[in-house]
Design goal:
mainly alpha, 93% helix
């Protein structure tokens, strides 16, 4: 009976899983933010390129 009680009180594994889930959520949020920033940068450089070509010709 003592072993069962000590097993039920041990939550190190659950804590590790929770930290893993939090890290995964942060990674997904970071990837989504970087994708949005990448799209904005691409649009900005495309606009600059277009304006430079129009002014050069």
């Amino acid at each position: 009976m003592q072993k069962i009680r000590s097993f039920l009180k041990n939550n190190k594994g659950a804590t590790a899983i929770e930290y893993g889930l939090i890290a995964a959520l942060i990674a997904v949020a970071a990837i989504a933010a970087m994708k949005g920033i990448g799209t904005q940068l691409n649009n900005t450089f495309t606009n600059v390129q277009t304006k430079m070509q129009n002014n050069a010709g």
